[in-house]
Amino acid sequence: MSKTSFIIIEKSYLIRKGMASLIEKIPNTSLIHQFDNEDDIKSLDHLEADFIILNPDLLSTNVLKAIKKIKNNTQLVSISDAAISISKDIDWAGSIFIEDSQNTILNKLNTLIGNRGSTKIKSELPEEISKREADILKNIALGFSNKEIADKLFISAHTVVTHRKNITRKLGIKTVPGLTIYAILNKIIDINDTE
Amino acid sequence: MLITKNIKMADVIHTNYFTLSVLNRFGIELGFADKSVSEVCNQYQVDVAFFLEIVNTFVDKDYFPKKHLQTFSVKLITDYLQKTHHYYHQVKVPEIESLIEQMVNSCYTQKETLVLLKKFFTDYKLELINHTHREEQIVFPYTLALEQVYSSEKPDSSLLKVLETYSIDIFQNEHDNIEEKLFDLKNIIIKYLPQPKDSKLCNKLLYELFNLEQDISDHSRIEEKVLVPKVREMEKEINKRFFKN
After folding, report:
1. What is the predicted ipTM?
2. A141 to chain B nearest CA, in Å?
3. A14–B contact, CB cutoff 8 A
4. Do A184 and B116 touch (CB under 8 A)?
5. CA of residue B192 relative to chain centroid, distance
6. Which residues of B27-54 are buried (b: 16+ CB within 10 A; e: fewer)?
7. Mind listing the pLDDT tens digit for each residue in A24-37?
8. What domains, with CATH codes, occur in chain A?
9. A93-103, pLDDT tens digit by residue?
10. Residues 133-172 of A with CB under 8 A from B
11. pLDDT digit string (tens) for A76-116?
């Protein structure tokens, strides 16, 4: 379920749209936000993304500050005219040039995603829920609250929440009634156990 | 594609056939030959600017209504939203219920699981009813009172009282994600439900669920992009005018 996420920072509408449509072509990606001017970039620190694709011309001190505030596992990719060399004090994970062909850009993006997500991709393999998660799921389906489940299984409520997130991510089911049906279909609980 | 008043109404539907349900809510019937959007709207006494806002918000997720915000009344918006609610309760939900019912009846081996599905949807229906009911009982009356105050020189003090009880910010905060359960239901059918013999019924049901989910999300977008900004503007203005001290 977790997708590789992108933010685009670029003045030109055409380039933004073009970049966005290329990102859309790659499976399991999402474009979180597009910025076209400095003022909006101030709100950047609320966002989390795997990659920021950025026109280096927009690297004013303010933007630099905003970018540095973002968690350090966000990688920066430049998008620029091939002629411009980029030498500011930033670590670029890659660079895309306006004149690159569609395939070149897609290859670059795929490589970037591949390099970055070796651990991530592993966890995207078809997943079954673990024995522990099945225990938690059973209790959710039986209608117990996080706190009650924590007390029953001698773990912290925080751990229960983490398990729940993982269950939802693996199964693609978010709500309690949905999880209950899953539990019954997979004989984790009996239909007569509910209500 | 940005839909404008000079485009042929027929092309609006060709662009995105989901707009059919929008036309339906405006009471516009098919058979408009080559008439333009504005001609058809005039014929049915539909406010053209309003129609365009709705249809564009519906067609383009990134569409941001700005210019026309002040040209039509809150009453128009809430009337439209109410018609959408009506459409869910009178048309979409019964359609889905009947499909599930047919599945239950045509199946002998795994009735139990289908009954579960049915119960899930019945619960969802209640949630949807509560959700729309709350909007109609609290949110819409509030916005209408607000509009009345907004347009009068000396508003009734009882109306001003109403305004103190609610604000559009509350609505935005509590506007919960009513599509979540539909998403789950779809996923259960796609990924986990042992497939019933009659896969046609099942596909039809999925199609209807996708459809309803899409419609509800478009509907929420209209609330958030058309209704909320307009009401917020009016709130600001009224605060300046009447509650300054």
Report:
1. 0.73
2. 13
3. no
4. yes
5. 30
6. ebeeebeeebbbbbbeeeebbbbbbbbb
7. 888 888 888 888 77
8. 4-123 (3.40.50.2300), 131-193 (1.10.10.10)
9. 888 998 889 99
10. 171-172
11. 898 888 666 665 667 788 889 988 899 999 999 999 888 87
